[in-house]
Amino acid sequence: MSTSDQLAAAVGAPSAPVAKPKTKAPVIIQQVLSEQFKKQLALAIPKHLSADRMARIAATELRKTPALLNTTPASFLGAVMQSAQLGLEPGSALGQAYLVPFNRKNKNGEWYKECQLILGYRGMIDLARRSGQVLSLNVYAVRKSDEFFYQLGLHPDIRHIPSPEAGRENQPIIFVYAVATLRGGGYQFEVMSRAEVEKVRSTSASYKADGEKSLWGTYFEDMAKKTVIRRLFKYLPVSIEALQVANVDAKREAGEKIDPNDVIDINAVTVEDFKDIEEGEVTQEQPTTEKSSDVQQ
Asked: What are phi and psi of 225, to 5 degrees?
């Protein structure tokens, strides 16, 4: 025992803490925080986001969802790149998009995990507004105690009066609906019953595999809202790219194979781009105050 430790023990003071050896971060975290990947993000990301912020958000998602650490690096980096190009932040903080691990089988019948980008309903609202033709898009859940009425035909109309009763938010959802206000005048809306929503949920690959632990199990209301917005997209004056994104998202959620013609034009990211940093070491940086331009309201 050192002299300082002996003196500390004599007066009852704690000994100096022993420094813990640094451990290497998982390779996938090293890759997502690498300067090479940030440079590629910077080429794809819109002005309202920064490559450094997107990389840190992706690394945070890896720590929050350990199953993502077992996904193939190429699929995870590709999903982050897709999110960046769409200008959507992944993760539950904003609910714009989610990085979700899926079980896949290779040609030899061996199982592996692949990361897929799944849109949130807030992300779909953001995509719709970017067209400039949709002034607003709102989505609501109807609870059992609410007063709700809608009609189609020559005079389509919708009426929803939420119940003032306490505990309304704990009552079961019976409908979800989305209403868009168009720049040229008029409205467009779509309504889905709970049974219709649950039918869509039953086709979800993640729900089949993980049940109540999946996005559908954890965020049923959010996923139901996204489902009705996705159906409304077919009737809105949005861009072809936004429609492609919605269609690809539906296929990913159902676990269907994505045809090359379905996928938006992005630069592929492969593990080969990061071979030179696999033996590197990542240390935790001290948090810094972000500029207001980096924080999305």
From this structure: -65, -40
Each residue's pLDDT tens digit, 54-76: 999 999 999 888 899 999 999 99
Distances (CA, A) of 42 to 33, 45, 80, 88: 13, 5, 12, 14
Could you give phi then psi for residue 8, rounded to 5 degrees?
Answer: -65, -40
* Count of C-beta atoms within a 10 Å radius of residue 229: 28
Sheet with 187-193, side-by-side order of all strands = 134-143, 173-182, 187-193
User: Which pTM does this prediction carry?
Assistant: 0.69
Pairing of strands 187-193, 147-151: unpaired
| Dist. CA 60–CA 77, nearest whole Å | 14
Q: Which residues contact 101 (CB under 8 A, 6 or more apart)?
A: 65, 67, 68, 70, 71, 113, 114, 115
Determine the Cα–Cα distance for residues 174 and 143; give it in Å rounded to an integer: 6
Question: Beta partners for 297?
Answer: none
The answer to whether the Cα torsion of 66, 70, 71, 77 is positive or negative is positive
